[in-house]
Amino acid sequence: MAKLKFIDLFAGLGGFHIGLERLGHKCVYACEIDKHLNEIYRSNFKTNYVDHDIIKADLKKIKKLNYDLLCAGFPCQPFSKAGTQSGFDHKIAGSMFSYIMKFVQAHKPKYLMLENVPNLYNHNKGKTYGFMKNQLEEEGYYVEEDQISPIQFGIPQTRLRLYILAIKKNGKNDQPMIKWPKLQNNMKDRKPTTNLKKYFIKNPYRPRILSKEKKLLLKYWEDFLKRIPKNETLYNPLWIAEFGATYPFEEEAPRKFSLKKLQKYKGTLGVSLKNKSKEEIFDELLPPYATYSRSRNESIEESYEFPEWKKIFIKRNRDFYKRNKKWIDPWLKKYKFNKLQMFKEPTHRKFEWNCFGEKYTLKDKVISFRGSGVRVKRMNAAPTLIHAAVTQLPYIPMLDRYLSIEECLKIQGFKEKRIINTMKSRGWERAFKAIGNAVNADVVEKISETFLNKKLDKDLYRILPRYQNLRLF
Prior knowledge:
Blueprint: E1 5-9, H1 15-21, E2 26-31, H2 35-44, E3 50-51, H3 59-63, E4 69-72, H4 96-107, E5 111-116, H5 127-138, E6 141-148, E7 157-158, E8 161-168, E9 180-181, H6 212-227, E10 238-239, H7 259-262, H8 278-285, H9 308-323, H10 325-335, E11 350-354, E12 366-370, E13 373-377, E14 382-383, E15 395-396, E16 401-402, H11 405-411, H12 417-424, H13 428-437, H14 441-451, E17 461-462
Parallel strand pairs: 1-2, 1-4, 2-3, 4-5, 7-14, 11-13
Antiparallel strand pairs: 5-8, 6-8, 9-17, 10-11, 12-13, 15-16
Helix pairs in contact: 1-14, 6-10
C-alpha cells in the first residue's frame, strides 16, 4: 500500500488520524475549532500544522502540502435525529460542508473520506445528501456511501455511521472502483459475535459510580422482571405511565377534549383526573408524550391527533397491563408511593428491553439511562457512545460502575497509551464529550485498508453496486 499524505478537518479527538497513522499514512494538516480538543490534538499528534478555524484556513498555503486524501468528520448536529435536523439552515454547523467543498475545489485531492450520522442520507427526504453528492460529482469525483457500525467488525459498539468515499476521476470516461471492507456480522444478529467483557479493565482511573437513586430504580425494575410469568413476553418499549390510564388517544389527543370531559378519565399510572384543573392535568397528571402540542409544520387540526406509532405504543402497553394486572398492581403498590417518588420522573417510567430470548434480569446486562427511558442491552456490545451527558454512559451492573474513560476510548478505537493518558487527566465531562463525538479509529482503519489499497486481493473486500440504495440493517 502506497503511503499517502492526508489532512484531518473537524479533527476532534483524531479518529481519522489514528486509523490512518496505523497504516503508515502521514497527517500534514489538521483543523479543530474546539479549544479543548485542539489542545488535546496538539498534545497527541506532533503534526506540522494544526489550525483552529476552518473558515480562516489559508488554502494557498495548505495546497503546497500536496496531500492525497481529505478526511472530515464534519458536524452532525444539523442532520442527527437527536438534534434539530435543521440541515444547512443550522447557523454554524450547517455551512461546514461548504468549507469542505472549498478545500476540494482549491486542491482537488485524489481521495475523500467523510463521516456523519446515518440520518444525513435521509434528511429532508434525501435532498440534503443528494445535494452534497452532486456537488462532489460536479467536481469530477466518483462517490459511494455506506452505513457501517463497529460491531460489524467485531468491535462491541452499536454506532451506525454514514461513511462517504470518493475518488477523483482522471477524465469523464474514467470509472474508478471503490473497495469496501468485508463485514463480519450483521447488527441484527441476536447471536453474540462480540463480547464487551474483553474491553473491561481492572482498577480504572476514577470510575463513576451509580447514584443511590438510580440504584434503587434498578432494584425496582429487577423486581418487575422477576415477576413476569413464563408465558408472557415483555413489551418493548414499556411505558408504565399507561398502566391504569384511560385518557383518550385513538381518535383525538387529550388537548382536543374539554376539561369537563377529561375529568372523567384516568391519567399517569391510573391517577384520577376528577376535579383537577387543566394545568394540573397537562403539567402533572398526563405523560409528557400525551400532552401533544402543535409543531411548527402542523395545522391546529393535526395537533389534535397522535401519530400512528404513538397510538400503537399506548394501546399495546395498556393491553399488556390488562393481561398482567394481577402481578403488576402489587408491584406498583410496593413502589409507586415510596418516599423518593421514584416513578414521578417520566424517564424512569419508560423501560426498553433489548434482550429478547434471555433471562429477565439486569445482572449480566448493559444499562443506559436515556431520555427514552432505562435501556437494557446484551453484554455483546455497548450502546452508541454519545457526547450529550455523562449520565448516559453505559452502566455495567456486574462491575457496579459505569464504563471508564479507558474502556470508552478502547471501544472507540483509541488504544494508544498516549491518547489514554492524555484523556485520563481531562476530567469526565470533557473526556466523555470528546469520546462521544469522535470518529471510531478502528472503523477508519478497516475502511482505509481496502479503500486505499490498489493491490488488495479481491477476497478481502466487497464492491457495492453503483448508485445503490443503502443497505438496511
